[in-house]
Write a structure and sequence with these properties.
Number of helices: 1
Helix content: 10-25%
Number of domains: 1
Oligomer: single chain
Largest sheet: 5 strands, antiparallel
Order of helices and strands: EEEEEH
Strand order of the largest sheet: 1-2-3-4-5
Distance between the termini: 23 Å
Structural class: alpha+beta
Length: about 70
């Protein structure tokens, strides 16, 4: 079974990055331009946190989470 992947553009630093969020069992694996960057999870309090990987600003984690949520709404 192939995990669903959501792709979108995101501004990181001073450039636009192609971000992919690949659904895993309890998280999303985040790739920037094809390179794995982090795992993010949705908490019981309905916010997004980074579980592992390169430390990303919370604003980027929040934006990724919003993109994931909007994909399913």
């Amino acid at each position: 079974m192939v995990n669903p992947i959501i792709g979108f553009g995101i501004v990181y630093g001073e450039e636009i990055i192609y971000c992919e969020a690949s659904m895993a069992e309890r998280s999303y694996e985040i790739y920037f331009n094809g390179k794995w960057m982090a795992s993010v999870e949705h908490t019981e309090y309905l916010n997004w946190i980074q579980a592992s990987g390169v430390i990303l600003p919370q604003s980027i984690i929040d934006e990724i989470g919003q993109k994931i949520e909007s994909h399913y709404n």
